[in-house]
Amino acid sequence: MSGIPLAVLDLVPISSGSTATEALRNSIDLARRTERFGYARYWFAEHHLNPGVAGTSPAVVLALTASATSTIRLGSGAVQLGHRTALSTVEEFGLVDALHPGRLDLGLGRSGGRPTERTDDAPPTTTPVIDGHTPNGLRIPPKFSFQRLLGSPRIALQRRLLQQPGAEAQDYGEQIDDILALLRGDYRSADGVEAHAIPGEGADVQVWILGSSGGQSAQVAGRGGLRFAANYHVSPATVLEATEAYRAAFQPSDVLDKPYVSVSADVVVAEDDATARERATGYGLWVRSIRTAEGAIPFPTPEQARAHHWSDADRELVADRVDTQFVGSPARVADQLEQLQEATGADELLITTITHRHAGLSWSSVAAALAKFAGCQ
């Protein structure tokens, strides 16, 4: 997989016993380090009402990070369009682009938007999955149902707090079209009125669509000839259908003449397998807090995680995420990343890593090791 670019996805996680201030400083420090090691891009996720995640506004965090870095591309993974307008999104990124031109990726997601058809009955992928694995060994677990999360009181409260009373999310495809038109400067309303986003119009940003399945996001990205990021680390069961649906729908555009795919992976790498497993100990408990709709807890210490009493239901709740986390020595993780790239045909890999400690984790050796084994330096 020599030459495959690596990128970073950062949630700005808060560790147990730490603060949002420390989390933000750690993220900026990590962005500086990954820039030095030649990573292609650094993205910030958007999450709300999570005690253990400080990444609530990608545009704000990437603006702060842009001032602390100089060359690495920075972006959103992803802006949640379900509670935003096309204009506010273009204006936010236009402001940052005005001071840091040519460095921004505008990653757009459907979260919080209108429900679409479920993909439980999606057709089989062309890549066969036998006993939960692709032919090259990549783990593809059974699908996880997000219905429990969608029906939780906390998610309903989040929606109410993020949207104006009575507001209804715009159709996702229409919203993407409006964003592209505002960026180009040729937006017209249904009755022919022009609108020009200043700053924003003409901003030199790369537009990405993020998706977890072969549904609307993959279709919108493909038909629009846009870059697509598929979500293995959150929805590993549907990564193949997502990438295949995108490629099947792809139509060449002024932006791309052929499909371009990034695929995410949750990674913990250390000097040896045992050290990596110890650093990843809290991951299952952290995922459990998300899957039970509590909201992501501050990332636990290994001792806190080992103290949790795991029921069979708990283990089943997080199994797909835990089983598909890449944990181990640089050589082991590089092999797993190669499996992922080969099975999905990814043009880039997007790495996300959460552990309890930032100081002492030796991010420099982690980043350097991954870049070396992926052929990025």
TrEMBL record:
Listed name of the protein: LLM class flavin-dependent oxidoreductase
Say which domain of life the source belongs to: Bacteria
Q: Which organism is it from?
A: Streptomyces rhizosphaericus
Q: Domain named Luciferase-like: which ranges?
A: 8-120, 184-344
Q: According to the UniProt record, where is the region Disordered?
A: 106-137
Which Pfam family would be a valid example here? Bac_luciferase
The protein's matches in InterPro entries, at most eight in alphabetical order, are given as: Bact_Lucif_Oxidored (IPR050766), Luciferase-like_dom (IPR011251), Luciferase-like_sf (IPR036661)
